[in-house]
């Protein structure tokens, strides 16, 4: 039986890449997604790549961001470029470059909705790096952070079961502090609270949770506060975007699926900090810890995503391990290189 036809992929020649307004030497491609299933009008996603990149000798990386986030991590892209990978990043619908006027930032009521842009991005990446949308050879590493680190393994598990042609293009998964469970008091993870979140999420999806988000993490990162990174505060505000019941219900549904056990079908590397420190306001302690997620939960659930999982705690790393201070950041990159060597037989390249 012939493989299923892959739809929704325009040819390389007909695609309209344009200069990125946020990053020099990068360009973007809009992926139209039609009408929003959550009723916020026309939606789109945005694929980002480095302009004039050298041919990909090792394959490609497709990066997926987290909540209150978008792609700006150029150092991560350079790391993979230096090792022969074409690097692509996807700003999901209503996130970062893809957020349109009148839309609730990052809002969705079902994480599975993201399959549309993930599939389209995978098709584009595959065609541009191998010249064949139906290529069976595994060539793409998916990398994802935080909420993206929940979305990505759920997507790969579905691909393995329902779309093996696409799944065969993926050779590995790198998760950076994935959001695998709900942090906070144990009562928040009870069935009663879960049903409450689900009920409000269904009836009043855009109702915001009555709690103030800490700006400690954002202030630890941004160069205008206490950090060293420059990014657009409209797309990644220091205190984060509001959390809605509909979005949180979607996240909890995804986490429950993950807790039952997935099979992503490819080797995985899961990076996290070695400790969590939660603060209501910036404190130097958050510079050497995850102040967003509970790393014990990440450690607890990392093994359920598949059969070949390499889990690493990076001493003194931040929530985004690749935005950590210099020493833990170098350690995180060393761990990625070690994993590439061990799993794919790729020697260190500088």
Automatic annotation (TrEMBL):
Record Pfam families: Hydrolase_4
GO molecular function: hydrolase activity
Superkingdom to which the source organism belongs: Bacteria
InterPro entries: AB_hydrolase_fold (IPR029058), Hydrolase_4 (IPR022742), MAG_DAG_Lipase (IPR051044)
Protein keywords: Hydrolase
Positions of the Serine aminopeptidase S33 domain: 58-275
Keyword Membrane found: no
Designated name of the protein: Alpha/beta hydrolase fold family protein
Organism: Gordonia neofelifaecis NRRL B-59395
């Amino acid at each position: 039986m012939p493989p299923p036809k892959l739809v929704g992929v325009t040819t390389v020649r007909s695609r309209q890449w344009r200069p990125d307004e946020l990053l020099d030497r990068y360009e973007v491609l809009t992926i139209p997604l039609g009408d929003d299933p959550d009723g916020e009008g026309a939606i789109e996603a945005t694929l980002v790549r480095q302009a004039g990149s050298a041919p990909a000798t090792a394959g490609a990386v497709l990066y997926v961001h987290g909540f209150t986030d978008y792609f700006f991590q150029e150092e991560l892209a350079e790391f993979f470029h230096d090792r022969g990978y074409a690097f692509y990043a996807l700003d999901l619908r209503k996130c970062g470059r893809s957020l349109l006027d009148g839309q609730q930032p990052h809002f969705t009521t079902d994480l599975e909705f993201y399959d549309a842009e993930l599939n389209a991005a995978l098709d584009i990446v595959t065609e541009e790096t191998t010249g064949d949308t139906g290529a069976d050879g595994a060539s793409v590493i998916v990398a994802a952070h935080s909420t993206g680190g929940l979305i990505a393994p759920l997507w790969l598990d579905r691909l393995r079961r329902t779309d093996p042609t696409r799944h065969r293009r993926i050779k590995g998964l790198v998760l950076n502090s994935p959001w695998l469970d709900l942090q906070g008091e144990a009562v928040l993870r009870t069935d009663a609270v879960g049903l409450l979140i689900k009920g409000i999420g269904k009836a009043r999806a855009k109702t915001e949770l009555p709690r103030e988000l800490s700006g400690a993490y954002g202030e630890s990162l941004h160069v205008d506060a206490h950090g060293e990174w420059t990014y657009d505060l409209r797309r990644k505000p220091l205190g984060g975007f509001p959390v809605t019941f509909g979005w949180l219900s979607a996240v909890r549904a995804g986490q429950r699926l993950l807790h039952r056990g997935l099979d992503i079908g490819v080797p995985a590397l899961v990076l996290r900090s070695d400790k969590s420190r939660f603060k209501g306001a910036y404190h130097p302690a958050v510079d050497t810890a995850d102040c967003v997620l509970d790393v014990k939960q990440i450690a607890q659930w990392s093994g359920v995503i598949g059969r070949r999982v390499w889990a690493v705690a990076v001493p003194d790393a931040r929530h985004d391990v690749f935005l950590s201070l210099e020493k833990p950041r170098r350690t995180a990159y060393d761990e990625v290189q070690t994993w590439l060597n061990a799993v794919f037989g790729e020697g260190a390249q500088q």
